[in-house]
Specification:
Layout lengths: L9 E6 L3 H16 L3 E2 L8 E6 L4 H17 L4 E6 H5 L2 H5 L5 E3 L7 H11 L6 E3 L22 E8 L10 H5 L3 E2 L2 H13 L4 E6 L6 E2 L2 E2 L1 H11 L7 E4 L9 H8 L7 E3 L7 H7 L5 H14 L4 E8 L6 H14 L3 E6 L17 H24 L5 E12 L2 E7 L5 E5 L8 E10 L2 E4 L1
Parallel strand pairs: 1-2, 1-3, 3-4, 4-5, 5-6, 7-9, 9-12, 13-14, 14-15, 18-20
Antiparallel strand pairs: 7-8, 10-11, 16-17, 16-19, 17-18, 19-20
Helix pairs in contact: 9-11, 12-13
């Protein structure tokens, strides 16, 4: 039997930021477990703490620094390793001020076990272990895979990294590098393994999923071919696409995708603003007319598809008129869910240097108004499923108003609840929508 280099070492990983980070954290823990490490909760005492950082805003940067400091306080004799976007985006001088034991940049997370081992060995000589490359020069996709069966029933799978869009508010192209895609064969192999582990739904994710390239094609065509191949894998009942750019949704894309019955009719189309003038300042590559056309194409081929989005309020220079344009456009589209974000400055971006930064109280006011609109749209959408049979993947147990339920989502990502008795997590149930409370569709 091969000796495991980290046998018995207690390791805790804290993930900040997006679902891509979450996937990579799970993959890093899989690599560490293979070497004998013992996964430990971040709140408990560990020998090694790894913080998978986020750098999407200045607030995310600050949270990353806070968590690094907190880890050291949890166990002063522990090894603390900073990984991910924040570490990748800052300078060497800034990294040296953090006082941690090691760094793992993006496209180097497959080296995590070696870095942990080196850090443990170097504690007495106080040397910092660095595994950071110039991300702008990285051309190959970093193969990471989560080999552990988690408690989830839905598996997230990263198939793409990097971004070439350079939106004016975003640091990600500098933290993640240029577009890199995972080989289709490796995606299919992992999908088969996940199906064999009991996962029934797979969500395809990436930093800029619409740029995915495989089969010698890219964008929508590559995604179509990939989902068609995945649909033939026994055990996989649902395939859900992560965030898409509106321009990928052409008439042909929508028609062909709708023929794949395993693809969920739930589409997260990134909007960011419903004002064309704000979109131009954001350096987004579409306008509201193109966005609306993509939504129309989806609604031509799907019955009442879920269309969800992200919207930033309070972008530099956003006038009351521009904000009202966003509110009116959101109502026009009729989203089933909107993630509302108050613009947060990020040092190093074009938007950070723009004039007419919006006051925080104005951002908060606009956020509250848009959230109120979003909640009304979400309830209207959920009410459309009352009296209709729903096919739901049960995911977790919850106590709602003193009663035990199992909750999950239907194909259109409406949250549903069924009485827990006689059911278990991980199974699909078919039941009829009865009533909507707090945007939850209760089934009987």
């Amino acid at each position: 039997m091969c000796e495991k280099k980290l046998e018995g070492v207690r390791v805790a990983i804290l993930t900040l930021g997006c679902k891509v980070n979450a996937y990579e954290s799970d993959a890093m823990m899989s690599l560490l477990r293979e070497e004998g490490a013992v996964p430990t909760d971040f709140e408990d005492v560990a020998d090694v703490y790894i913080i998978n950082t986020c750098s999407v805003t200045n607030i995310a940067d600050r949270k990353s620094r806070q968590m690094l400091n907190r880890a050291k306080k949890e166990n002063p004799s522990s090894v603390v390793i900073a990984a991910g976007c924040y570490i990748q985006a800052i300078s060497e001088e800034e990294r040296n001020k953090l006082g941690v034991d090691g760094f793992v940049g993006n496209n180097r997370k497959d080296r995590i076990a070696d870095v942990v081992l080196e850090c443990l060995g170097d504690r007495n000589v106080h040397e910092t272990v660095e595994e950071i490359a110039d991300i702008s020069k990285e051309k190959e996709y970093e193969e990471l895979e989560n080999s552990d069966k988690a408690s989830h029933t839905r598996a997230y799978m990263k198939i793409q990294d990097g971004c070439d869009q350079f939106c004016s508010y975003c640091i990600i192209p500098y933290a993640r590098g240029r577009v890199r895609s995972r080989k289709a064969g490796n995606v299919i192999s992992e999908a088969k393994r996940l199906a064999s582990m009991g996962y029934k739904e797979i969500v395809l994710t990436g930093i800029h999923l619409s740029s995915y390239e495989a089969y010698d094609v890219k964008g929508g065509e590559a995604l179509l071919k990939l989902t068609e191949e995945m649909a033939g894998i026994p055990g996989i009942e649902r395939i859900r696409l992560g965030s898409l750019e509106p321009r990928v949704v052409t008439r042909d894309f929508a028609k062909r995708l709708s023929k794949n019955r395993k693809v969920c009719p739930h589409f997260h189309l990134s909007l960011q603003s419903g004002s064309d003038t704000v979109l131009k300042r954001m350096n987004r590559k579409y306008d509201t007319g193109e966005y609306a056309t993509g939504c129309e194409e989806l609604r031509k081929v799907y019955e009442d598809p879920a269309i969800t989005t992200d919207i930033i309020v309070g972008f530099p220079g956003e006038t009351e008129e521009e904000f009202e344009e966003t509110c009116n456009f959101a109502k026009k589209i009729g989203f089933s869910k909107v993630h509302v974000f108050k613009y947060s400055r990020r040092r190093g971006t074009v938007a950070d240097r723009m004039p007419d930064q919006i006051r925080e109280e104005v951002k908060a006011q606009r956020s509250r108004k848009l959230i109120s609109i979003e909640e009304a749209m979400g309830e209207t959408y959920a009410l459309g499923f009352v009296g209709k049979p729903q096919y739901v993947l049960l995911e977790e147990e919850e106590i709602i108003e003193g009663k035990k339920y199992l909750t999950g989502y239907n194909e259109r990502y409406v949250r549903c609840a069924v009485p827990a008795e006689g059911h278990e997590c991980g199974e699909f149930v078919t039941a009829t929508g009865n009533v909507v409370k707090d945007n939850i569709l209760f089934l009987t």
